[in-house]
Amino acid sequence: MDYVFDGEKGPYIEDDEPxxxxxxGYTKLKGEEFVKKHAKDWYIxxxxxxxx
Length: 52
Known about the structure:
Blueprint: H1 23-38
């Protein structure tokens, strides 16, 4: 969800139209689109601030 949606609506579902808030969100969305187009089977997890 981070950076791909602006946070105005929430909670979001898979079919919601992205509303990018910055260039980082744009690159995340383009990465998702690439995976959807080129991978046979895929899952996309939009995680928020992961520290390990």
